[in-house]
UniProtKB/TrEMBL annotation:
It comes from the Bacteria. Pfam families: TPR_19. The keyword Secreted does not apply. This is Tetratricopeptide repeat protein. Keywords: Signal, TPR repeat. It comes from Sulfuriferula nivalis. The keyword Signal applies. TPR repeats lie at residues 166-199. Residues 1-31 form the signal peptide.
Length: 223
C-alpha cells in the first residue's frame, strides 16, 4: 500500500464512521418523528370519535383528515400514514353522510390497497380490519363497493394476523352479528372484551370496549 494512502486511511475511516452515525441518527429521528405523528393521529381520532359532541364531529374529522394527508405526503413509501389517513377518512364519512361520504370511503379503500402493497401486516392487521369494515358497512353496487364476501375475507385475514386484538375481534364479531351468526359473534366479541390493553392506546381501548359491551347487550336479545 502506498505510504501517502496509509497516512490518509485513518482519517477516511473516521469520516465514514461519522457519516454512518449521522445517517443512522437521521433514520432514527425520522422513525421517531413518524411514530410521534401517528400517535398524535391516534389520540386525535379517539378524541374525535368517542369524546367530541356530535355537532362538532365533522369539523374535528375535517381537521384530522387534513393533518393525516400532510403526514402521508411527508412520508412516501410508508404504510402507516396511508392506513391512518384511511381510518380518518372512513370515520369522517360515517359522520358526514351523503355523496361526500361515498367519495371518502372510496379514497380510504384506495389508500388501504396502497398500504397493503407496502406492508400487509402493518399495525397489527389494521389494513384488513379497515378494509373488511368498509366492505360490509358501505352500500353495494351501483351505489358503492360493498361486498359481504370480500368483507369476510379481509376480516378473517385480520384475525389471522392479530388473533387476540381488540379491533380485529370487534369488527369480525360485529360483522357476524350483522350476518345473524350469533354464536360465533359472541365468541369474537368476548375475545375483544378480554383483549390485552394496547400501550399508548388507552383512550381508544376504552371507547372500543364500550362498543363491544353494547354489541354483547344486543346479542342477549337473540339468546
Amino acid at each position: 500500500m502506498h505510504k501517502s494512502f496509509k497516512r490518509y486511511l485513518p482519517s477516511a475511516l473516521t469520516a465514514i464512521a461519522l457519516l454512518s452515525t449521522v445517517l443512522l441518527g437521521n433514520n432514527i429521528a425520522f422513525a421517531d418523528s413518524l411514530g410521534d405523528s401517528i400517535a398524535e393521529l391516534q389520540h386525535g381520532w379517539a378524541k374525535a370519535y368517542y369524546l367530541t359532541p356530535e355537532p362538532q364531529k365533522i369539523s374535528a374529522f375535517e381537521n384530522l383528515a387534513t393533518k393525516s394527508h400532510q403526514i402521508e405526503i411527508a412520508n412516501p413509501g410508508r404504510a402507516e400514514p396511508l392506513v391512518w389517513e384511511a381510518i380518518v377518512l372512513s370515520s369522517y364519512a360515517k359522520f358526514e353522510g351523503g355523496l361526500g361520504a361515498l367519495n371518502k370511503v372510496k379514497a380510504a379503500r384506495d389508500l388501504l390497497v396502497r398500504a397493503e402493497k407496502i406492508q400487509p401486516d402493518v399495525l397489527g392487521g389494521s389494513i384488513y380490519t379497515s378494509l373488511g369494515s368498509l366492505y360490509y358497512k358501505v352500500p353495494h353496487w351501483p351505489i358503492s363497493f360493498g361486498d359481504k364476501d370480500k368483507a369476510r375475507e379481509y376480516l378473517v385475514k385480520a384475525i389471522k394476523i392479530n388473533p387476540n386484538g381488540i379491533d380485529a375481534n370487534y369488527f369480525y364479531g360485529d360483522f357476524l352479528l350483522e350476518q345473524g351468526d350469533y354464536t360465533q359473534a359472541k365468541i369474537y366479541l368476548e375475545k375483544a372484551m378480554s383483549a390485552s390493553p394496547r400501550p399508548g392506546r388507552e383512550d381508544a381501548d376504552q371507547g372500543r370496549r364500550i362498543e363491544v359491551s353494547q354489541l354483547l347487550e344486543k346479542l342477549k336479545l337473540h339468546s
